TrEMBL record:
It is found in: Cell membrane. Belongs to the binding-protein-dependent transport system permease family. HisMQ subfamily. The lineage of its organism: Bacteria, Bacillati, Bacillota, Bacilli, Lactobacillales. PANTHER family: GLUTAMINE TRANSPORT SYSTEM PERMEASE PROTEIN GLNP, MEMBRANE COMPONENT OF AMINO ACID ABC TRANSPORTER. It is a multi-pass membrane protein. One of its GO terms (molecular function) is transmembrane transporter activity. Its main location: membrane. This is ABC-type amino acid transport system, permease and periplasmic component.
Length: 490
């Protein structure tokens, strides 16, 4: 779906917020520069390309010698562009909704992912010329092939497409009385189609071919749209004010077309998809899930550690005699608790990226730690207040100053009181940290979506991820309960 591919109603809007606050400033600054992007790429010898590898046959992953490897039509095009510039290719994976923000804030040199160069997108980034044009199709259940033969038969029916995508707009515009439903990912749409929640799903022709060749229950029909020049084609996005970079990309695209390389890219992508679907058992993808668990636990453990440190600091500031300290603590806590973690993750990764290039994993840990600190501070403040005032008076009678009283008397007792609440916060962090997948951290949810895209199985990867989350939470709960009993008997 020449992207067509867009993730959800909320995610693009949140990304737009970050783009307006930080990306606009960055784009304006670079637009005034002397178009140095291409020179920087050549000087460092590496071209950083953003993509979202959950969209076969354009970009997806395969298990190659035990390593997750990005492949697909767009990946081959990116390789050719890097080869033409005599530099190495470095792929940076993230959600599609984050790609244009990454371009604007300089996280990547360019973004490729079947991006349709709409006039709205062209206001924020520059585009190369079209490198691939494909027609529009609908996926339907083969059992309904007799009733649905063309878009005319879809009038008044339920049609699915990726939210705010080209296919979504085309269905709204061209099919009278259709009930068009937007979802975040194509595998979700196909699952809704197969469970008869939708009558058809609008996709790009290569995507339709990929699904029908790997799922005998699906059938492709031509969309029959009368398409304008802005309704077809995929282009490469670069930062505003980079004409030399655009010219270099266009030269590579011209060379690719002259040498007729794209048919070969499509054929190669088909081979990879066929290899992926030869064994779609979840055990075959155990390394994907294991890698996701590893990153999920790293983020959770490190974030709760720093969250507790920050929480103690904020709680002490909140209880301070100085009004300015109390105001700072209250303000921080209210802002963090009053905004979605998704916005905070985007803000840290892309917002701070204006000043310093933070890796996705580090940005995810920082964002989750800052979020956790606000909640932990309230838990700790409640624990401190739960300690009887007589404990403070007893400490004073023993000659302890305020600092030692807090350190040796109040905090140890308060932590004993709040242990269950801290345990719940840890478990919550394990589950909510999945939001970092939006910036390309390969946690469990990220790997879940990759497996769904590679295997064309909508439900099985979800069940595996649910079981893994449950097992982690169950084991952690038992460990926390054990230490809670130990403290109570201590």
């Amino acid at each position: 779906m020449i992207k067509s591919k867009s993730h959800g109603m909320i995610v693009p809007q949140l990304c737009l917020l970050v783009m307006v606050v930080f990306g606009g400033m960055m784009a304006a600054r670079r637009a005034c520069a002397d178009d140095q992007t291409l020179n920087r790429i050549r000087q460092r010898g590496t071209m950083v390309v953003g993509t979202s590898p959950d969209y076969p046959p354009f970009e997806f992953q395969i298990n190659q010698n035990g390593k997750q490897t990005d492949v697909g039509i767009d990946i081959e095009i990116a390789k050719q562009i890097a080869k033409d510039q005599k530099v190495k290719l470095q792929l940076k994976n993230m959600s599609f909704a984050s790609l244009l923000v990454a371009v604007q804030t300089g996280k990547v040199d360019m973004a490729i992912g079947g991006i349709n160069p709409t006039p709205e997108r062209a206001q924020n980034v520059d585009f190369s010329k079209i490198y691939y044009s494909g027609g529009q199709s609908f996926l339907i259940n083969k059992s309904q092939a007799g009733q649905i033969k063309s878009k005319k038969d879809l009038e008044g029916k339920k049609i699915g497409a990726q939210s705010e995508a080209l296919q979504y707009t085309l269905a709204k515009k061209n099919i009278p009385k259709a009930q068009v439903t937007g979802m975040e990912k194509t595998p979700d749409l196909v699952l809704a189609l197969k469970t008869h929640k939708l009558d058809a799903v609008g996709v790009e022709k290569p995507v339709a071919a990929a699904y029908t060749s790997n799922d005998p229950e699906l059938k492709e029909i031509d969309a029959g749209y009368q398409l304008g020049k802005n309704d077809v084609g995929a282009a490469i996005a670069v930062q505003k004010g980079n004409p030399a970079m655009v010219r270099a990309l266009n030269q590579s695209i011209d060379r690719i077309h002259q040498q007729q390389l794209i048919p070969g890219y499509i054929k190669q992508a088909g081979k990879h998809m066929k290899a992926n679907t030869q064994n779609t058992s979840m055990w075959h993808y155990w390394k994907y899930f294991a890698n996701g668990v590893q990153y999920t636990l790293i983020i959770s453990v490190v974030s709760i550690f720093f969250g507790i440190i920050l929480g103690v600091l904020l709680a002490l500031l909140r209880l301070s005699r100085f009004r300015v300290f109390r105001w700072l603590s209250i303000s921080y806590t209210e802002v963090v608790r009053g905004t979605p973690m998704m916005v905070q993750v985007l803000l840290v990764y892309f917002g701070l990226g204006v000043l310093i290039n933070i890796p996705a994993l580090t940005a995810g840990i920082i964002a989750v730690s800052l979020n956790s600190g606000a909640y932990v501070s309230e838990i700790i403040r409640g624990g401190i207040n739960s300690v009887a005032k007589g404990q403070t008076e007893a400490a004073k009678s023993l000659g302890l100053n305020a600092s030692d009283t807090m350190r040796f008397v109040i905090l140890p007792q308060s932590f004993k009181n709040i242990w269950p609440a801290l345990g719940n916060e840890f478990i919550t962090i394990i589950k909510e940290s999945s939001i970092v997948s939006i910036i390309g951290v390969t946690d469990l949810v990220y790997q879940l979506n990759v497996v769904r895209a590679d295997t064309y199985r909508g439900v099985a990867p979800i069940i595996v991820a649910m079981v893994i989350y449950f097992v982690i939470s169950f084991i952690l709960t038992r460990i926390l309960n054990f230490y809670e009993r130990s403290m109570n008997h201590g």
